Amino acid sequence: MEDTESSIWTLVEHSTAGMAAIAQIEADPIHVGPEPVCHHFYELVPVDPMKVSLEETYVHLAPRFAALGVEFLPDRLEAWETTKPTIEWLEGRILAIFEAAKASGLVYQGWTWEPRGRQPIAASEIQVINNRSS
Q1: CB-based contacts of 55: which residues, under 8 Å, 6+ apart?
Q2: Residue 133 gets which letter from DSSP?
Q3: Residue 27 belongs to what domain range?
Q4: pLDDT tens-digit series, residues 92-114
């Protein structure tokens, strides 16, 4: 594996990172209600976007993720929901999304809690920066 390649996180790594993120979220006194949460994926076997539409390739996965309670955006390989992450949410949600991604030829990179007006809190192998001002 090259240094620039991502490693595939195990379910245990997702859980550990998720618990740390939830501790940070619970410590935020301003954002106490449900906020946007983004689940991030990448392709196990990438398609060439110059030859094949990413959206057309993965649009069939939208119903699978909708059944889990998230809105899958095939053109961005993201799934969104609005919630307040808790340990119960983590235990109930992440395994299902992890397994759905795996069955779909995707790798689950993790999730980010993204309220307006602050930087995201991540349980992910990628860094997300919030450029929204409000």
Answers
A1: 74, 75
A2: -
A3: 11-124
A4: 999 999 999 999 999 999 999 99
